[in-house]
Amino acid sequence: MIEVKDVYFTYPNGIGALKGVSITIQNGDFVAIMGQNGAGKTTLVKHFNGLLKPTKGKVLVDGVNTRDISVARLARKVGFVFQNPDHQLFCETVEDETSFALKNFGYKPNIIERRVTWALNLLSLTQYRKTSPFMLSGGERKRVALASVLASDPKIVILDEPTIGQDHQQKEKLRQFITQLRAQKKTVVIVTHDVEFVAECNPRVVLMTEGKIVADGRANKILTNYNLVTKASLVPPQVTQIFMKLSDLGLPTNVIDVYEARKVFLNSLEGS
Amino acid sequence: MSVFDGLKFRKVSSPVHNLDPRVKFFFVCVLFVVAVMFFQLLPLLVLFFVPIPFVLVARVKREWIRSLKGASMLAFIIFFFNFIFNYIYNEYPNIPSASLIEYSVAMTLRFVVLVETFSVFFLTTSPDLLGLALEQSHVPYEFCFAFTTAVRFVPVLADEAQTIMDAQKSRGLELERGNFLKRIKNYIPILIPLIVSAIRRSLELAEAMESRAWGATEKRTNLYVLRLGKTDYALAFTSIFMLVVAILVWRFVPIPPLSVILSFLQL
Ligand SMILES: Nc1ncnc2c1ncn2[C@@H]1O[C@H](COP(=O)(O)OP(=O)(O)O)[C@@H](O)[C@H]1O
Ligand SMILES: [Mg+2]
Fold it and tell me: Which atom of ligand 1 is nearest to the CA of A39?
């Protein structure tokens, strides 16, 4: 469980990136943190594994204040996948890359071997085991970065902008993958402004603007609230936009999912 | 990375920002030369205060102090080594003399003077103006361009290094762990991604430049041309005056150590 209690954060250059943020993320939650560029999303999630410590207020991870524990220790519990895989890949082979965190945490070789095999298999990277990560494509490098974090089997997984620069197929894979993580009762936090991606997953949405949380609730509630969404410089999902335009037909305006939309639409056609 | 912050230029207008970069650079060089000429505490102490009015006028106090803080560790090391080695060679096993302490402080102060003047210079001079100054001093354009690009990418690289450090810490890397050799090895996971991305960035830059016909014309002209104004001449003359005075003092005036002056004042 992550508890953020009235956190303020100011960067050394004087920019106040968080201004009184409070939020609780329960075990097994699936949360999408959304908002425009510079809203403070990355700053907030960097507090979850102690990379940043609040200027004021506190952050508790499973009841432990992030001030009292090192990032390296928290990292066993909280896996953080950065936006750009090129910011972390440095080993000669994908295998070494995947075992880096495990070695840092001091696991035994046989356990490392097992975990690496498991993680590479999970992300369909087994064939690249002995390949240099620098030889892989962008999407594959992103998956290596993901594998290297998941290999240590953290309870909480944070993904910063996981869909940027990914084609539709890769996004779909990512979605299935998140579903898998959720089935394993993991807490998943994604940072994104990809409205369509979030609409397909229907997680809990936390909307941020200018260092504050302005809304918190299920995706089908938040993303269909036109005023809220535009205030955060986003647009409602396309399906919702259509339904909003068709509201004089008596159609509901809180639909975000294509399948649900189809059902609602067919029902209303039958009714008339 | 706070040392780099002290060199980061931000575009504002102030009398110091508007000075001609060539004159400003000349002034910095004079301070530099004078600082190296003297090894006594008194003149270095005077030099220490010279850049401060510039900092106040340019309103870059916070950034400037940050760069000094960033250099404080190195300053301490300089003091420590000067003191220890001179003590062991010259005075051991007597108690250290006042002049030895004074000398070590002076050497440290010399370093601080160099850092503070360079910090003011880079904080108040835009890389573009600097490149322009080089160009008008008949340095080949390729060199000017390489120089301005390098300067411009320092803060970008510093930000990137921070992100990479965060990413590796999130994978359990502990930079501060182990003995000296291990600590150096700890930086490999930071350096490799940093270098790879710098190379990738430079290749991208080269492609972008070529696609915009870089080097197509032999003779370049500039939209802006640097011209010396009144304040520029004033600073130039001040610099020359300072240099002359410093040389005269250095040549003809014996400078008493601070301890002597203090005891003289007490009498
Ligand atoms: N390392 C940093 N130093 C100074 N300011 C920063 C740094 N990182 C982010 N900021 C500033 O903090 C604010 C929030 O940034 P960030 O959390 O990255 O936003 P988001 O991830 O929502 O786009 C922005 O105004 C940004 O300019
Ligand atoms: Mg971000």
Answer: 22
